[in-house]
Design a protein that fits this description.
heterotrimer, A: mainly alpha, Ammonium transporter fold, two-stranded antiparallel sheet, C: mainly alpha, 9 helices, globular
Chain lengths: 334, 212, 192
């Protein structure tokens, strides 16, 4: 039990390191407002966690700090220019409605960050999908004069991205604060997978699902471009690392997790292709939560069955050994 | 005496039809987004339910369950006819907005199922008082939900502009209704448990489990 | 092919009577006291919506527009007939199954899911005359019933977690189910 708690805290620490790196990148592109927005979301989420745990009669422990990583994920998915109040509402929604109402971190159903993002998207869709240009350095309370559609929007409509590969790799294109830094996301994904912090199966399922469908039914004219751009736009990479591969939600067996990630990715890609939906992967991840729950329940049944079988075999072996021993004793008596 | 009064008031205090029984929730979720809609629904629900249950109480108790349920449904569907005609005169706009949820009020579970389980086990006078408070309980929830949703989603109170500069448009959608009603149910239950135990306890089950 | 399927699934969920119209939510929660109940009720509601829409077609075709207030009464009468026929058939053909399944039938006969389906179809047909055919009515009824089954399955998947001891006592069960359905409905709404 203690080992498990320790492992959970290490996972949280690893995830925090990668998220903070993305936050630094957001500061580099958008200035102090990016940090303020993240800080506000973290502060509000933390306060909401403290208050709601108190109302539930529970004590705050170090494990409850997951609310901070969830808050950082939310702030990295939102535009830097978004009203601070929306960021605060998102933090409260994630902690109270999407998590603690269902019993908190020990009984997680939805990814709190994903649910909060969908809440923002459905309530303030314009604010959530308009972004400042990278390198528009904003003060804490400053708002940009010009807001643009994201690069993902342009790709969904035209099938093209007017950025160099280097710019795409560095995340130097209009989009959410932190989910555009492709190179950092790839490094984070590799690190988190090797440290066992995220579900490798779900991550690979999501990336392969998007890539494969994008190659088979390209958005634009070129299959290769479609494959590459589809993975880096619409928050696919970010969601694959921090939402779909979240070990609290994804199935535990890699094969099941792969299938889960694959289905989400294929659904999201098809919605992008046919309806030009922006960032549908997050809502698809929320929508497929019942599938994740069903798969996890199936895993539990399989585990119970396997354990029962092992126990039966062990009993059989011990029974045989005892019988043989009994026979030996009887023979020696004779 | 107190217990008796409590059971009559149960529709508001301990056993609210919507918040505790989770009955008649679809109109609250879908139509309870403005006070105008709420008023029309409250009016219709109150009259249909009150008259239907009262008339249904004369149905012989010895009839088979299925026959009784069908009779209750037919009675409320008949009561709906004049109520609908009156609503067309008094709330013509709201009737348009409420749409299919208006007739659905007539087959709500409070009339069709709870009559048998709750009201017809009481004497007629007590039943009438209890029914009144059950209806009042629904009306209160409908009004509160509509007030909160209209204020936060449209920035108005009964169509008058209120000083709200950050609107949560999701609250006017069905999912907003689901979430708000879920939160209200939880708060109602919490308040009820705090009041019944003198506010001494937290969520006992949770505290035990959280430590495990 | 796959693309049409995904779009159809999203459209199916977006038109789901529970997720988009909250119809039959109370019945879903009553049935949700056990997983077995949930599945049994869902299948009974499928029967009622399919048969009900068939009757609704006949009623809508015969009823003059000036007597629209009587539509509910006629729908109720039609559903009542089916209710009695179903119980009688089950009792005479399979008395043991009757004991087992009659509560699902009782729960499914009069509720917003069934009546809401009939009224929704009637309203749709009023707006688009091409939908006023027996086939369209029955198809809509069957789809609505299947939608209820889909919602029941979505709820069943989280049933254990929503009723767990870990959920705060005030939110355990119904309130948690409402919020759970609300979040799923929100995701569907954002994708439609």
């Amino acid at each position: 039990m203690l080992k498990k708690a320790k492992k959970e805290r290490l996972i949280w620490l690893d995830i925090m390191i990668t998220l903070l790196t993305l936050e630094v990148m957001a500061y580099f592109y958008y200035g102090a407002r990016a940090v303020a927005s993240a800080g506000l979301c973290v502060g509000v989420s933390f306060a909401a966690e403290l208050i709601s745990l108190r109302l539930m009669g529970r004590r705050f422990t170090a494990d409850d700090l997951t609310c901070i990583s969830d808050a950082l994920i939310i702030s990295l998915m939102l535009p830097v220019s978004i009203d601070h109040r929306i960021t605060a509402y998102a933090g409260i929604f994630a902690v109270v409605v999407a998590k603690n109402v269902f019993g908190g971190r020990r009984n997680i159903i939805f990814s709190p960050a994903a649910a909060a993002y969908v809440f923002v998207l459905t309530s303030w869709s314009r604010e959530a999908l308009m972004f400042p240009e990278p390198h528009t350095r904003l003060g804490i309370m400053e708002k940009p004069d010009v807001l643009l559609h994201s690069a993902s929007h342009a790709f969904n409509i035209t099938g093209r991205l007017n950025y160099t590969d280097f710019e795409i790799l560095m995340g130097n294109f209009s989009g959410p604060a932190g989910s555009a830094s492709v190179l950092l996301l790839v490094i984070s994904a590799v690190m988190l997978i090797f440290r066992g912090d995220i579900s490798a199966g779900a991550f690979l399922g999501s990336v392969i699902g998007t890539g494969l469908t994008a190659y088979l039914s390209p958005v634009g004219y070129s299959r290769i471009d479609s494959l590459g751009y589809s993975v880096v736009t619409n928050m696919v990479l970010f969601a694959s690392v921090y939402i779909i591969a979240d070990k609290r939600i994804a199935p535990q067996r890699d094969l099941f997790a792969f299938f889960y990630g694959f289905i989400i990715a294929v659904t999201a890609y098809i919605l992008t292709l046919t309806a030009a939906k922006e960032n549908p992967i997050i809502a698809a991840a929320v929508l497929f939560t019942p599938a994740a729950l069903a798969l996890r329940s199936l895993e539990r049944k399989i585990d119970t069955e396997l354990e029962a079988e092992k126990r039966r075999e062990a009993e059989k072996v011990s029974g045989e050994t005892e019988a043989e021993a009994g026979k030996g004793v009887a023979e020696s008596h004779e | 005496m107190n217990e008796r009064r409590e059971s009559v008031l149960a529709g508001i205090t301990a056993d609210n039809a919507v918040l505790s029984g989770l009955m008649v929730i679809s109109p609250v979720i879908i139509c309870g987004d403005t006070i105008k809609n709420a008023q029309a629904l409250i009016w219709a629900f109150s009259i249909i339910t009150f008259l239907s249950v009262l008339i249904s109480s004369f149905v012989p108790k010895g009839l088979p369950y299925t026959v009784k349920v069908i009779t209750y449904a037919l009675i409320s569907s008949t009561v709906y006819v004049p109520v609908r005609a009156a609503a067309d005169i008094f709330y013509p706009d709201a009737i348009q907005r409420i749409g299919i949820y208006f007739p659905l009020l007539a087959v709500n579970s409070l009339i069709v199922f709870q009559t048998e389980a709750k009201f017809f086990r009481m004497g007629r006078l007590r039943m009438t008082a209890s029914l009144f408070f059950y209806i009042l309980g629904f009306d209160a929830v409908m009004l509160i939900t509509a007030l909160v949703r209209e204020l936060l989603a449209y920035g108005t109170i009964n169509s008058r502009i209120a000083d709200v500069d950050m609107l949560i448009s999701g609250l006017k959608e069905p999912f907003g209704g689901f979430i708000l009603l879920g939160l209200m149910c939880g708060l109602y239950r919490k308040l009820r448990s705090v009041m019944s135990r003198g506010g001494s306890s937290a969520e006992e089950g949770d505290a035990n489990v959280s430590g495990k | 092919m796959q693309m049409y399927l995904v779009n159809d699934i999203i459209a199916f969920l977006a038109a789901n009577m529970i997720l988009s119209q909250a119809l039959g939510t109370s019945s879903l929660f009553i049935a949700a006291h056990s997983r077995k109940n949930l599945v049994g009720t869902a299948f009974c509601i499928l029967l009622f919506t399919t048969f009900g829409t068939a009757c609704a077609y006949i009623i809508d075709s015969a009823l003059p527009a000036s007597a629209a207030e009587f539509r509910l009464l006629l729908y109720t009468a039609a559903v009542s007939v089916f209710y009695i026929v179903l119980l009688t058939l089950l009792y005479s053909a399979m008395p043991q199954a009757h004991e087992k399944f009659r509560r699902y039938i009782h729960l499914s006969a009069f509720n917003c899911a069934v009546m809401g389906t009939l009224f929704t179809m009637s309203e749709k047909a009023d707006g688009d005359s091409s939908l006023r055919s027996f086939g369209e009515y029955v198809r809509f009824g069957a789809e609505a019933g299947l939608g209820f089954i889909a919602a029941a399955l979505i709820l069943t998947a989280a049933y254990r977690k929503l009723n767990s001891n870990r959920v705060p006592k005030s939110f355990r069960g119904g309130p948690a189910m409402l919020i759970y359905l609300g979040i799923i409905s929100m995701a569907v709404w954002s994708l439609k």
